[in-house]
Amino acid sequence: MDSGLSQRLTIVLVEPQQPGNIGMVVRAMANFGVDELRLVNPCPHLHPEARKFAVGAAPLLGRARIYDSLPAALGDLTFSVAATRRTGRLRGELLDVAAAAHQVRQGGSQDRIGLVFGREDAGLTSEEVALCSCSATIATAPEVGSLNLAQAVVVFLYEFTRELAAAGVAAEAASERLPQAELEPLFAQIEALLTRIAFINPSCPEAVLNRLRRLLHRAAPDGEDLNLLRGLCSQLTWSINDWRGRKRGG
Q1: The pTM of the whole model exceeds 0.85
Q2: Residue 170 to residues 94, 177, 247, Cα–Cα distance (Å)
């Protein structure tokens, strides 16, 4: 695997609970030449058990970056994939891991891709899935569907490193995605605006907001697109200052 391509991948573990699993994850990362690990509120990742299972990849443990929230861990990444098995109205379309990996061909050569994995016992919450560009799963037998954390990381790394290698020169001509942190102010503007005009149900705002997030992630706006959308939201927000609320019948 070309080291330049593999360095575009980042593994993000959200609240991992077992040091040994973190060790096995970094060993899998080393197998594919991926060296950036981000941990969100982890268990002790330098525990002897983590070093034991990391084998020759133990130095990656010391270089892991620690975050107190998933948005912070994703901020400078341009494309992120939530690994999950659960479906639901608030989770959107669940892609096969190979289909999710194929989407890297739509990005530019400088895109930074995060593969996001949740807790060993509960995975990722719907809110955490919504923060990612898309969500993906590994097709397994329904009787025993869950994979060990490190096993899931291996499969994702295999598919994504293969797609990155296949994308090759085509990615040089593609447009670059924006870092996810640059999209968050737009999402906040949209939420405030839709709340103000009573477009979203306050008891379940995610039903609309998560869908809009997924739509914008698919659109992959560039800087000019982002400025246009933020300006539009600002103008709309200003123009409804005297709005008296949703029109009622009668």
Answers
A1: no
A2: 26, 15, 51
